[in-house]
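As the work plan foresaw, the team has encoded backbone shapes as discrete tokens. One protein thus recorded appears below exactly as we store it.

:::
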Amino acid sequence: MRITVGSKVFTATLSDNATATTFKTMLPLTVNMTELNHNEKYADLAGDLPRKASNPGTIHTGDLMLYGTNTLVLFYKTFSTSYSYTRIGKVDDPSGLADALGARNVTVTFEL
């Protein structure tokens, strides 16, 4: 999968689960992602995705997760968490992801 932020393009590997499979049916998808906590961007999707949430303990830069049933979250910093998420995928090489996403809300395109 490709993730485009402005002029920067990142590749990501989707997880082998029902959430990622359903997410693929929504692509291509362009969303306005909102800044949260100086470590993530999120956007509410139009529909619900299947979920099997668990606490990962540590979020890693480049993790693409589902929070609840319809909130897409792209993390750009590594940190410990007590929240539960369902994994959708991971950016293959997240170097430069934080700079591309910046500190404000941003438009992001996800496509196969």
Remarks:
- Residues 18-24 form the longest helix (7 residues).
- The CA atoms of residues 5 and 66 lie 19 Å apart.
- The chain has one domain: 2-111.
- Strands lie at 2-5, 8-14, 29-36, 40-44, 58-59, 63-67, 71-75, 79-80, 86-91, 106-111.
